[in-house]
Write a structure and sequence with these properties.
Blueprint lengths: L2 E5 L3 H11 L12 E6 L1 H11 L8 E5 L15 H7 L1 E5 L2 E7 L4 E6 L2 E6 L5 E7 L2 E9 L1 E5 L7 H4 L11 E7 L10 E4 L4 E6 L6 E5 L2 E3 L2 E8 L5 E5 L5 H8 L4
Parallel strand pairs: 1-2, 2-3, 3-17
Antiparallel strand pairs: 4-17, 5-6, 5-16, 7-10, 7-14, 8-9, 8-13, 10-11, 11-12, 13-16, 14-15
Length: 254
């Protein structure tokens, strides 16, 4: 098995990378079977976005040299090749966001965790919601709203009181951010095949930005979101502590 190595810019990740290079022979990413990523969740997300630019994205085996490392395996230098060979693989499909601005410009970005719409000023956003071409909510008055994948459901979605989705669930979470009207609406669970559209009311008076993971488009008027099953990203985890277990445990965390 041929492994490539990527490390974040942190001192801890660089030191870990230097230590691994003394024990293993790594190859360039283009020649690798698996990419080992050293860093935190943000760095792994960056690596996955970079992988989407390749015709054949490589599986990722992350090891935590960051802070939380929710999507990372524990860092151990010993038996790395054997660990990768026995790892459990999960396949992720990103969301595709197409945003049209108030000036008519159209921009598309992928999102592995979530797409979020956020008010840009002190004024609340007014957003209409349609699912598969049918209007489901004429007007949500809020600070924002987001659509999360199962892999991203424990991130911003959970902070906004959205549901935790098991990784194998073929669902998306539609979660409001500080809803004002309807005040008691807590969001919805949608089939992963759904096409979700947001129409920003009074877009110039109440400007809204759309963010796909870390890519922001400001002053949007319309946003369309759908899962892109043409792109498959593979994450690899030690079998004794896999991502689906971590997501399940989060449902019982206080």
């Amino acid at each position: 098995m041929k492994l490539a190595l990527l490390a974040s810019d942190s001192h801890v990740a660089r030191a870990a990378g230097d230590a691994l290079r003394t024990q293993y022979d790594f190859v360039p990413v283009r020649d690798a079977d698996v990419v080992v990523a050293l860093g935190g969740d943000g760095f792994l997300l960056h690596c996955l976005h970079e992988a989407m630019q390749l015709k054949d994205p490589k599986p990722m085996f992350g090891m935590n040299r960051g802070t939380v490392g929710f999507m990372m395996n524990d860092f151990r230098a010993k038996d790395l090749v054997a660990r990768v060979a026995s790892a459990k693989t999960f396949v992720l499909h990103p969301l595709q966001m197409t945003a049209t601005t108030a000036s008519g410009r159209s921009v598309s970005y992928p999102a592995i965790n979530e797409v979020s719409l956020l008010r840009e000023t002190r004024q609340a956003a007014k957003i209409g919601i349609a699912i598969d071409g049918k209007t489901r909510m004429e007007e949500l008055i809020c600070d924002g709203v987001l659509v999360s994948t199962p892999a991203g459901s424990t991130a911003y979605n959970l902070s906004a009181n959205g549901p935790i989705l098991p990784l194998e669930a073929d669902l998306l979470a539609l979660t409001p951010i500080s809803p004002f009207r309807p005040r008691r609406w807590r969001g919805a669970l949608l089939p992963a095949a759904s096409q979700i559209e947001f129409e920003v009311r009074e877009a110039r008076k109440r400007p809204v930005s759309a963010v796909a993971d870390q890519m922001e488009v400001r002053d949007v008027a319309h946003v369309r979101i759908a899962m892109d099953r043409s792109i498959s990203l593979e994450l690899m985890f030690d079998p004794e502590y896999a991502l689906d277990d971590r997501i399940s445990l989060e449902q019982f965390a206080s």
